[in-house]
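Let's practice the habit of predicting before peeking. Look at the sequence and jot down your guess about where helices and strands might fall. Then scroll down.
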Amino acid sequence: MGLFGGYQNPGPGINPYAPKKKPFARYWEILWRNFGKLIYLNLIFTLFHLPLLGAAIVYMSTDNGLTNIVAVIMLVIQFLLEGPTLAGTTRVLRLIVLDKAFFMGEEFKKGFTRNLGASFLIWVIDAIMIASVYTGFFIYPELEQKTGTKAVYIPYVISIAVAVILLFMNYYLMPLTVVTKLKKSQVFKNSFMLTALSPKQCLLSLFTIALRLALVVFLFCLSSYFTFFFAFYPAAFIGYTVMFIHYPVIQKFVIDPYYEETGEKNPEKEEIPEEEEHVFTDRSSSETPVPKQQRPKRGKIIS
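Done guessing? Here is the structure:
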């Protein structure tokens, strides 16, 4: 801008072939560059959860013969939408992590419509596991009182362990479903293997998710007015963090080996053209800026 300095003054330039920054710096760089897109994506995610919000409003604000029926219908609609919504969100988050240009609505629609069956199956399995862990929280204490032994908790501990493994697998299930053309059985198999190969990444994602959710709960406890905050945060930002942490694992063990084996060009890797293919080479980053010309000082005038 010429307002704070001359636009004609030479600058250092940007090296188009500079090496990528370290993950931590790159995480914040991509986050800041796509901050508006993440808010927009969170709004779309919220829009597809309006049936859940409607069910809660109907159940809490009305009390008649239709209350339960309407609330259940809205919950069923939400249940059917959940898997494809996650698939559409995953497709957009992958492009954000890869720092690619895209149209938000178009890419979300592709992820939503092209993965209806697979994403719904993943969500059904997740829902069954969530329901089993939740109901076990109330059932097993009663069983302990009736039997008088804590051995009844063994199946519950096993179910919690399976739920944790499934949670870690979810970091890979939806991305593999959206990105690859693997069969459903192969998606689950590869997700389990990738989970075993990346325990540090899984624990890091779990920690960041807990931290962000704790922030939301803290704000909600301060004031119920922060409820509107859910429309802009945290779904897309949590998804971005998880995708940023785990998509390199998918690239390393699934995508890159596939293209190396088939010999096809990997579209996710940017290739730098060789020197002889350059028509023009940008050397602005390696050039020494021309020093600014100093205006000649005027001599003193004696009156």
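How did you do? The radius of gyration is 27 Å.
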